[in-house]
Amino acid sequence: MKIINNVKNSNSFNGNNLTQMFIYSKYYLEKHVDTLNSLNVFPVPDGDTGTNMLITIREVLKSIENDNNPSASHISKTMSEAALMGAKGNSGVILSQFFKGFESALKSKHNFGYEEFIISLEYAVKYCYKSVGTPTEGTILTIINVAAKTARKLYENGTPLNEIITHTCKDVKTSVLKTPESLEVLKNAGVIDSGALGLYIILEGIRIYLEGGDLKSSNIDFPENLNKAPINLSNSSSENMLDQSHDKYGNCVQFFILSNTINIDEVKKEIEKIGSSLVAVGSDTKIKIHVHSESPDKLIKIASKFGEITQISIEDMDEQHHQIISKAKNTSETILFSISSGEKINNIFTEFGAINFDIQENNYTKDKMESIILKSKFKNAILLMNGFTLPLDSKIFSNKFIHILNTNNIADGIAAILNYNPELMIDENISNMESSYKSIISIEIDKAKETTKLYDEKLQANEYFSLYNKKLISKNNNILIMLNKLFKEINVYDKDLITIYNSKEMSRKIKETISNHMETIMPDAELEIIEGEFTSPILIISIE
Q1: Neighbours of 377 (CB within 10 A)
Q2: Is the CATH number of domain 15-242 1.25.40.340?
Q3: What is the pLDDT averaged over residues 450-477?
């Protein structure tokens, strides 16, 4: 789906806007899924909270991928049904009730405003709390409740509509950081609740969309200095809490009950007798159950009294827990370094955890880079070159393992860093990152400042030219003719995503000309535009 964000200062939204809100949420969840997994200690430290929330929201967006109906009622209902069917894990099933809140609030509405958005949150509170057998504060439940109450209070106090989501997210962030005060297991582990943080990230994605932010160049207000309980075993309380081999977590059991009439309260009452961490959601004809139990066969037999049992999933949480501890003790410590230019691009790399060297700032010097690298404590490092040179003597790497990835430009670098996984060993990360940036088409467009020669090709002053894989592909004084020549040489017509990185040297007219041209030649592709603030080349086009 093409990202078109023109909702800043708008007070009316349709189904397409609702879809794009959650496209933003999914994007930021993907960026932080590993952190969410690493914080997962409640109700069971099985390291999958982030993954389960992401799977759920991906299923939601998949259900409306080719749906052009702009009705908010239609889209919210489709989302809610997909969330119920696709929800995975405790956090995913609870998240499905967040979407059910939108379905209820937007029923029969083609468009909606901030009041309906707030009502959606209020419905979500009701459904989420009702879904859980034993509601526990200091979790995702608390965060949904805080979001709804804060937004309602701001609305009734006359806060400007476009500021409600901003202030709501600030209050929610504060509440996320306070979750250990409500839940002793979090306090003992020295972490915040992963589900609570996940819901905050989803709301932050919505905030950035409603504020008119660019998808890839905007950053969520992410809490700093988070401990990561299962992965960061330097935290002694976390290690003790996680490595208790005598604890039994049992099985994570998930299934549907289908019948003409089902009393969900009766189902919950029976299942809670032999299960814990119960979440039950659905209607009077279809209920989804997520529960932890050491006796899954007995549990399913009891549930079968209420109707037909389908889509059974049983996962051994003790084995999952063991794998997390094993991985935590064997994962190499890796640092990422990157070289880039322009504040917005720099922020992308730093948000993904890289120590970034900006060629326009004073840390891109031989002395500064050597000092930073030598003072950094790491076993392994990956350096993303992004088409820039390295003003260093390679001898400083002699006592450290630093692998240099020769990414051709920032588009390659972003593709690579998106596929970095801190839980993987260095060799696997290098392989994944190389594969990712080599699989995209990244094209540099520039303008010759004077008559010169490049890759054995003569260029006239003010002539536009394109580079791909360190080869000059096309050139012309007219940028559109140059682009047409380029795409005769490179087949891009079966691709799904175009990202244009504009430099600050580009005029508004040329920016619009190029984006319109790309939409014309690739009408079915999603188009994203990032204002890069770099100076050279004049733009980069990434196609995948």
Answers
A1: 7
A2: yes
A3: 90
Name the token pair of 56.
């759920």
Residue ranges matching CATH 3.30.70.260 in the chain: 251-325
For 441-543, CATH number out of 3.40.50.10710, 3.30.1180.10, 3.40.50.2020, 3.40.190.10 equals 3.30.1180.10
Burial letters 309-334, b for 16+ CB under 10 A, else e: eeeeeebebbebbeebbeebeebeeb
Structural contact between residues 93 and 279, judged by C-beta atoms closer than 8 angstroms: yes
Q: Specify the CATH architecture of the domain 333-433.
A: 3-Layer(aba) Sandwich (3.40)
The CATH number of the domain covering residues in 251-325:
3.30.70.260
3-state secondary structure of 494: coil
| The pLDDT value given to residue 230 | 37
Given a cut of 80, whether residue 128 has pLDDT beyond it is: yes
Q: Which secondary structure element, helix H or strand E, spans residue 467, and what is its range?
A: strand 464-468
Paired strand residues for 454: 457
Collapsed DSSP state (helix, strand, coil) of residue 151: helix
Residue 98 pLDDT class (50, 70, 90 cuts): very high
Residues sharing a CB contact under 8 Å with residue 526, sequence separation 6 or more, in sequence order: 1, 2, 3, 496, 497, 498
- DSSP per residue over 296-338, as a string? HHHHHHHHGGGSEEEEEEEEEHHHHHHHHHHHHHH---EEEEE
Residue 326: the pLDDT is 46
In the Cβ-directed half-sphere of 406, how many Cα atoms lie within 13 Å?
3
pLDDT-derived band at 329, boundaries 50, 70, 90: very low
- Greatest Cα pair distance, the chain, in angstroms, is 83
The conformational region for residue 326 under phi > 0 = left, psi -120 to 50 = alpha, else beta, is alpha
Q: What is residue 241's predicted lDDT score, i.e. its pLDDT?
A: 40
Task: Write the CB contacts of 511 (distance below 8 Å, at least 6 apart in sequence).
Answer: 502, 529
Q: Three-state DSSP class for 367?
A: helix
Q: How far apart are CA 85 and CA 58, in angstroms?
A: 12
0.70 exceeded by the pTM?
no
Report the run of H or E that residue 282 belongs to, with start and end: strand 276-282
Please tell me the distance from the alpha carbon of residue 347 to that of residue 343, in angstroms, as a whole number.
6
Q: What is the dihedral of CA 522, 528, 532, 536, to 10 degrees?
A: -10
Q: At what angle do helices 194-210 and 89-105 cross, to 10 degrees?
A: 40
